[in-house]
Structures are given as structure tokens and as C-alpha cells.
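Entry 14. Structure prediction run on the chain below.
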Amino acid sequence: MSLPSWCPRYDSRKHDPKTGEEVYCICKKPDTGELMVGCDGCDDWFHFSCLKIPEKYRDLVFSFYCSYCSAGITGPALINGGKLPKTLWKRKCRLPECYTECDANSRSKYCSKKHAVQYVQSIVDKLNLPGVDKIALLRQLLNETTSLEEFKTLGRDKLPEVTSPLSKDQYSKLLENDQHLNKLINEHDELVSVKLSKLNEEDAVIEKYVNWIGEVNERLSPHFNQPTGRKKSKSASKVTICGYHNEFTIPRSVEEFLDKLLQLKEDENSNITSVDGVCVKTKCAKHQDWITLSQNDLSEQKDSLENVKRRLDLLISVRTNQLRISFFEQEMSNRVLPGVKT
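Output returned:
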């Protein structure tokens, strides 16, 4: 991977040769109090302005990797020959003008209930729903106790079903040729077959990796607590490694990984912190709760897409009912009523 056009070539200097001051970032200037972010790969600090990152994103950084680490010039990819790391961001509040992290405790896609109301209100205001009480519909959309089946029927009390069109062929063509309905159906199909499917695949990858690192830790403790030729002490504590990997990639089998890790640990001068891109620190504050955070982030993304899917189900149902009513009224107006001369 190459460096962005705005990023200069890597400069390893840590101090200004004239003043002796510590220098940072791609600009190699001292810290003047300007907003900066620390790289999780090379531990250098970088100015938001130099990285072309707007300051409004300051609270959304979860795991940051500079351009040099992302290009494999510095950091874990250079040391371990692993995959190139990438910056991870916290989930932003869905309201476009808000740059606050979503409320993780409630697993919401908004930072607050107030912004949830504002966002849904903006969606409802854009709907073209003749005869529908938008305020009542909004209240139903925000009702957290609404079941999936109830959600699918929202708004139907104002749009009666027409279940038996007088001309099924013409009615089918009406549905097929309606651009708005087709757009909603395409969005729905893409969400289910692409976006949700991708998240389910990522979920399976994470689960598989978590099981792998769990087995590594399960087999690791005896090696650290039991000196050669001695029985394991009853008071020996369980030793576990951090296990953080930015791609959740299983580098090798549990046995092969343990062999490599123990071989590196035998060197008294070794200060190894990662093996095959896997953090092997036993007390790692840097990646604390990384598994839970990653799983929660993925769960929130899935919940968000499920909510979008339910909204699309509702809009498809509403639009279909509109077309049914329009078709029914047109058919009735074209019919010759008994006793009426034409």
C-alpha cells in the first residue's frame, strides 16, 4: 500500500537537531497544544490537521494507525510481516450533524433519545403518505415495545388493503413499473444479501478467532506456571495473553503458535510483544476489553441494519397499499355501473 499524496516520506527523527525538542507527526514539529491523536502501531503522535481529519471526529477514534503503519513502513506490519492495520472508528450518532459516539450501554444507533426523535422525524417528514397521520406513525416507529409483526403493519389502519384487483395482469405491471417501489425493494434486497450477510460473516470470523485465542490461553498457563521437571503448583495463577489482532486472522494452529511463542519467550533478552500480529502481552492496558468492544460494535451495526430493514418493510408495505388503492379506484371509475347509460 502506498502513502497518500499529501503524506511526506517517512522521517525517523524524534528530536529537532537544532533545539533538541521532541518532534512529532508527519510535520516533525514540537507539540504546541494542537489537537493530536496517538498511533497504536508506532506510538507516535499526529496532528488532526496534518492528517486531513476534521476536529469534529476527535471523539470517534477507537484504534488509530498512521499512514506509515497503514502502508507497512512502520508498526506491527513491518515487524511481524502481518496484514496492514487500519484505523477503526466508533459508531457515530445517526443524526448527520452530530459527531458523538452512539450510546453503547443501550446499544442504540443514536447518542441520545432526543437525536433519535429528530432523525426519525426527518425521515417521516420526507414520506409522501396521503391521508396518514405522520405524528401518529412517528410515535409507532419510536415505540420500543413494538414487535416485528406489529412493525410490518404500521400505517395500514389509514391505508385499507385491496386484496383482489380487478385485473391482475395490469396490477402486476403497475407494481413492476413503479420506480419508487422498485427502489425500496432493491435497497431491501441489497441490505439483506450484501450488508447483513457481510456482517454475519464478520461475526463468524470473530467468533472463530475468539475460540482460537481462548484455546491458546487455556493451554498456555501450564507452560508458564510449571517449571521443567516439577509438578504444577496449586497456587499458580492462570496466565493469559491479550490476543488482540486487528484483522481477527488466525495465523496458525494453536500448537504451532504456542511453540513459536514459547521459543521466543525462552530468550531472556527477548521483549517480544506480538507474534504473527497477535498481541502476547499478559497485562495489556492498550487493548483492554478489545473483544467485548469489537463484538458490541458488530452487534450494534447488525441492530442498526435490522432497524433499516424493518423500516424498508414498512415503506414497501405502505407504497404497495397506495398502488392498490390507486389501481382499485381507477378500475372502479372505468366500470359501467348497472342502469347507467354510456
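The longest helix spans residues 179-225.
Filed with the rest of this week's runs.
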